[in-house]
Protein 1
Amino acid sequence: MGGVQAAQEESAMAAAATQPHMATARDRVAGFASGIASGATKLLVGHPFDTVKIRCQVEGGHGRFKGPIDCLLGTVRNEGARALYKGASIPLFGWAMMDAVQLGSLSNYRLLLQGNDKSRRLEHFEHGLAGLGAGWTVALVATPVELIKMRLQMQYASGAARTYRGPVDVVRHLTRTYGTLGLWHGLHATMTQRSFFFFLWGSYNVYSEWLRSLRVAAAPPFVTHTMDGRPLPEKLVNFLAGGMAANTFWTLCYPVDVVKNRYMTQPDPSSISFRAMFGHLYRIEGLPGFFRGFVPSFIRSFPTNASAIFVWESTMRLIKGETRH
């Protein structure tokens, strides 16, 4: 009798394991809520790097800086350390909102591809597709935020000599120049750059799986692919995979990012189209022009995005009450 009961219980457990694990309302909103924490983390860690990157990109090889280190030191020397956070008031709100939209939509695009069944494992390509959808979605929010931020970051004068007195003044100028939709000037350029989120989130899944296959051993080489030892902590996996995916993303999309930023910060009204800006930049600076500011961007991308994705994944697990999702 006991054997029959045990067999029935085992059969019931096996049946339960094969049942779809359907997403709940909490699963759908968790990504948006966790994205707010991720965005705030990005601002704190990454904005000084971003200011140096933007200035190097837009000034180019014929500007006032010899390179990223000269830009960093010159900015601090001439404008003070607070200048590294120029334009940060908009990203403080904007990055939180952008990450809420990006990571919330990413979570929901994943669920859509899973057919609302969380137990269905997505392929690397499908993770990339979810990232692509998230990139295009967040571009609607990112365009005005980045446009205002870059205009303020590229302002070197102070006092009465300033072109813009602050974010509101930038908004007035853009709407006066381009009309009601002036805040979305450069949307197509932003969507092109955000298309590379396919590689960001596709590679994040690749790196995560590889890191989870590693085992920590007590003796050299300490990290192995054998089943002996314990797996890496999931939070460490999130941090390392997030940083490596960000480095992959920026390596691939950087030339497009430079062109986008040149296009969106040129004097108004824009005289050079986004497509023509590629040829214009090449004629003026050659191939090196497409990689101005790459070093600070590459260095910034690992700690900024590793920290942000770590915070996002950890907050997601907390909200959903899971040890890992």
Protein 2
Amino acid sequence: MIQGPQRTLLEQLASYVAVDADTLEVDYIASLPITPHDVTSNPRFVHDQIADPSNKDMVEQVVKELKDAPWEEIYAVITSKFGARVIPHISGRVLGQVLPSQSYDTDAMVKQARTYVKAWNSQGIPTERTCVKIPMTEQGAAAAAILSKEGIFTLGTCLFSIPQAIAASQAGMHAVSMYWNEPLAGSDATLWPDVADPATEHPMAARHYRIRKIYDRLKQETGKRQPQIKTASFISVRECLAMVELGADHITIGRLVLEDLCMGSGLPKFQPGLWKVPVSEQLTKSGFEWEAWAAHDTAETAKRMAAVAETDPMSSIVDKDWLTASAKIDYLAPGVLSKFNEDDPITRDRLKCGLARFSVFEGKSKTYIEEVRAGLA
């Protein structure tokens, strides 16, 4: 019997969990051996595209047509045009993120989300193929609750905790995006948990799996759809593969890790100290070996995940009733989510860091757009 070509590790992974592309590079998305489900966006990606010389004419045209509009509206229209380029190459949704400066202003986030949807619709993209990313602050959850009632799909981003995840459920959000690694781990190797088995050894594993179980319980008890878990912020192939056991519905993967997943049908054998070293480079080093990958069977996964869920290594609180107690709280009530976000050092610090990093690119995009506007005056 003639055998066909072996499937890449990305293709194998996509048979277990939906893969979203964490890039706006259209040609690269089109070249993948799978069709991504969704394509995400963030202020850094959008700014990179705005400042790309190949988009100069388009950006200038939008600014010219909207010369008297607020810069936030211009930004949304430009973002929608990037979405229109990508959507023929995916099966699901395009996403846009409210501006970091709006993260604690409910009205501003609601307005920006409506502006995105209007812009996407003007590009021929139906609302059901869009989603607006909103930070999981108290004000973000309140904005999502308003938008959900209007039929606008939202995703809770900058999510690090169970209270944020339950708030997203209570607000009727379409999805949540847990940051698997902390925001600075992509630029500082000392902050990355370099472990062989991320599903059991990564410090975020317990929180991730607990959210999975809480959402499963809420769906069973209420009969209501729960947010998709769309995990992001991966640095290694092994972290992506761990999501099969940890219960992610979607995984949002950046270009560097997508390239690693396409390098072969096997998994590079674990070697410590390879932070952000591409598999293409690992292949040239002594000691490199491939090993086969297969998802754990159901019984083995249940055993491993039960052990993972027992203790949250990033919390000093012993919370043996985490599965039931946390869901009894109204996280949309005034002051509640803000208190939980502030009281948990992991959420407090990483939320602040993530928004600060994105704010840099918001500022750059605003400056670029305003300079274009001034030049056209």
Protein 3
Amino acid sequence: MEVAQRLVRSVMRAFYTTQEILVIDALVIHSALLDLDLSYLLKINIKDLHKLCASLRDARFLVVHSRPEMLEGKTRPISRTYYYIDYRQTIDAIKWRVHKTDKDMQVHAHPVDETKEYTCPRCSAQWTQMEVLDTFSPQGFHCGRCNALLELSKEQEAPGHQQLSRMNNQFKFMTDLLQQIDSMVIPECTFENAIQHARPIERESTHEVQQSIPLEYSIHNKPSAVKGLADTGPKTMQVTISDGNDEQETLESRKRKERLAAENALPSWITNSSVPTTAAGAAASRGVEEEEDDRPAKKIKSEVKLEGGDDDDEDDMIFEDVGPTTKKVKVEAGAGEEEEDDIDFEDVV
């Protein structure tokens, strides 16, 4: 474990900022820290600490763990955030970055053109081994331009190889530690192990934090419903399979439909109208309406006949229908006619 801790610290000092280095050093020393305690040690704001640890979490240098805890005098738990280092995960991340950097540098180390291996001392021309194969003699290869004896040029290192060599020298401390780690077994790093080996922090009296008690929280005792509500769901389920021709099932279905129809029926004060709809009531109402319609017509007809005065039989029939009042009118009309006849006779004489 000491070799893994030394590797993590060395990588942080080589590639990261001062605040990030302090965060990892504090976690290496204390094994696991609450976010409030880590903020107190680094003397930075809690929001800035969360932002700083988020970048280290993405780089796989630390792990964030949250658990519910109960404060003294409180009835509802709160969520606490802890930080610790998973050394297996961090070592794998370092190996992957070293491998990726080495592959990127090897791409630039390969030469684009073929190296000129032979140089002419007279005309300074450079030739490849394939170009001078046909000019071979017992003394050696000759220049194809001036026929001088060629000399083997000194080996020149390409710029890509120089960068690769420089990188290998700079990463030597990491590769050596990784080789040592490969020969040993790194124990599993979980939050339970880290919190058990955590070193407490001594705070000043003016910066004390209210103590909290962790709750037993797991998947098995996780509440499945709102607290205070009873579980009223079905406990068992029964499945019945039938061919659909059972008379008992048909009868039960009919009874169930009738019961539902009776339950959903409208009350009588909605279905029945307040206007009488019986046969006797309808006939009586029609008779009253006919009498009211006939009376004005008879009166009008009697008045028309009185003005004409030609047909006595029809007048008698009408008067009988109308009543005693019209008979009196007829008698008065007859007396008036007799008086007129007497007057006419007197004038003639």
Protein 4
Amino acid sequence: MTKGKGKQVEPMVLLPPMPNPSAGSANPSASLSSLWGYLLPALNHIVRSPTNSTEKAPVIDISYHMGIHTATYNYFTMQVETVSTNKERERLTPSGTDLYEHIDKYYAEVARELLLGAPEDDSSLIHYIVPCFNRYAAGAHSVNRLLNYVNRHYVKRAVDEDRGWLTLSDIFDAVAKAIQDGDTKDKITNKLKERRTEELKKWGWDEGGTSEQLAHAESCAEAASPVDRVVPLSALALRRFRTELLEPLLAIPKLKGNKRRKAGTHNGNAPNLPKGRLARAVRELLEKQDVDVEERKRLVTELANAMRVTGVRDGHPLRKRLDKYLSTGTV
């Protein structure tokens, strides 16, 4: 198929659904190792399989999908049933923690693999990151749906127990300063809600916005949280993309020895100061003259989106530079 004058359009090739692997007489929900062994082929197919469709993750057969849902449900149920009293429940690690931590380690490994595969040439770095992120994010959202029972059973409970992206300790100091003698419990609760709203506004939420906008802002805030916070699996994956891939590329290399900056270079704009790899790549993309304007804008837009949704805050210098270019068209 052609489009335009002689321009060949690559046909879309989608992988066939992955069939349900034979587990024989083994019970996938009998232990964490059994469950993980049953899940892993599906995760690798959805997240790691090579495909020229970066917008849509490969799928698994419906019977495999249902088998995973059933095995995950049974695993959580068996963990709860093995605990006979409430006191024993309090002493044990909450059910689901082990599986959640396995998934977190899995995404960390995938993101590190992507980092290791990054080209050494800075001029090619953004062209590598953008499709990598799109493919990774598509797989992460697919896995989030596949393992939604983990979100419903484990993540929701952890958030209710104040272990989510925003905890009372995070906002206590600010709220405590605003509390006055005589404030009722309802007033204090409202102040806590106001503080949460302030945090979400940093990620693009405006009061009166749609539920979709609220969900997007909260997902960004979840991805920006420290790695010890419990967040939905989609945000968990995006957070690991930030910590294992973007942050190493954003890191500024340390100067060798104990050299001090010369006077006048403290504003961070001196061209001879060291920059992280991603900052150098962005500078080259924006300042290079022989780059198609529309292609440059597309790459900047997608990179800015990847940084935002993975939790790189809007105060970061590189995010500011990308946003400035998108809003003004100037470097």
